[in-house]
Amino acid sequence: MPHLAPLFRFTTFPADAVRALTGANEGDAIGLGDAALAGDTYRLSRDAVPRRLTICDGPDGGQVVARGSEVGDAGEPLRIAACHSLMGETGEMIEVLVLEHASASMGLLLHLLPLSPLKPGTEYELIGSSTATAPDRFADIASVSFFAGTHLTLAGGAQARVEDLQVGDLLLTRDHGPRPIRWIAHQTRRAVGAAAPIRISAGTLNAARDLRLSPQHRLFIWQRRDEMGTGRSEVLVKADLLVNGTTVIREEGGHIDSYQLVFDGNEIIFAEGIAVESLLVTADLRARLPADLALDPEATDPRAGKSFEVDETALGNSADAAARLTRASRGIDD
């Protein structure tokens, strides 16, 4: 099932792990429609166990469970059903995406994908719920973003900050030389939870400066020796799998300006000297691109490069994965 390779990995909870303490739905699991009424108070169970959900595009253009998921079976349909807004005991706002999962063996199930951490035992009041904004909020955490201040390499080798780039500017790509930017999206969002950037310290993975990437962003690493045991020199690794608390950290807090770049096809470009991917044109994103932006579906297939991607199993201990890959890219021994 090569077409079911995961595009995204998120931590989720089953909906019945969050139940109403007070209100019209007292005792019931949070849900959709009348099963989620503003004013009800909810709490995440202290025994709740987070599980990894992997997602990819399905054959009909929607999302499905991908291979390697701890939730569901590969190929089962998923729908981004709603976005619940909760307020914590100290006034903090938490958004939670509700994913509807059509399980072949158990029927329709609901999973919760918190956009900010939910604390077990803490009470949250449901402020409101939206179905219309849910796909956009999912796109916020699934998109491959560069953050303001990041230097990208132009076709001639000069460096330019991502916020200074314009449609039509030529960037250097690894596989196809100079390529023009076809579309740029910009947004300002809170740097919390699944949307918080991953900062890779200068020198780690040979970065020229500190580099901040979105968690789902894949880095292209050429190994001079096969540190990962993949049998190939070229690997793609998601940024959030390299977090070690020292040289690679998750930066929480405040607001961030993020930029997404689209080319005629999926490209590997250079950010602070590191080879990283451009924005993947998933089925969800394609529906929101300008109508007159003609892209080749085959060239922008988000499954491109999946055979090069390594996951948690191949990386081993995340505490030293970045150091191991840095050594491998330089060809030096321990």
Strand and helix layout:
Blueprint: E1 8-14, E2 18-22, E3 41-44, E4 51-57, E5 63-65, E6 77-87, E7 93-103, E8 107-114, E9 123-130, H1 134-142, E10 146-147, E11 151-153, E12 159-161, E13 170-173, E14 177-180, E15 183-190, E16 198-200, E17 211-213, E18 218-222, E19 234-238, E20 248-250, E21 255-262, E22 268-271, E23 274-277, H2 283-286, H3 312-315, H4 318-330
Distinctive features:
9% helix, 37% strand, 334 residues, 3-stranded antiparallel beta sheet, mainly beta, 6-stranded antiparallel barrel
How is this structure best described in words?
It contains four helices and 23 strands. It is globular and about 65 Å long. The protein is 9% helix and 37% strand. The protein has helices at residues 134-142, 283-286, 312-315, 318-330; strands at residues 8-14, 18-22, 41-44, 51-57, 63-65, 77-87, 93-103, 107-114, 123-130, 146-147, 151-153, 159-161, 170-173, 177-180, 183-190, 198-200, 211-213, 218-222, 234-238, 248-250, 255-262, 268-271, 274-277. The model has no long low-confidence stretch (mean pLDDT 88). The strands form seven sheets. Strands 1-4-5-6-7-8 form a six-stranded antiparallel barrel. It has a three-stranded antiparallel β-sheet with strand order 10-21-15, with no helix packed on it. It is mainly beta and 334 residues long.
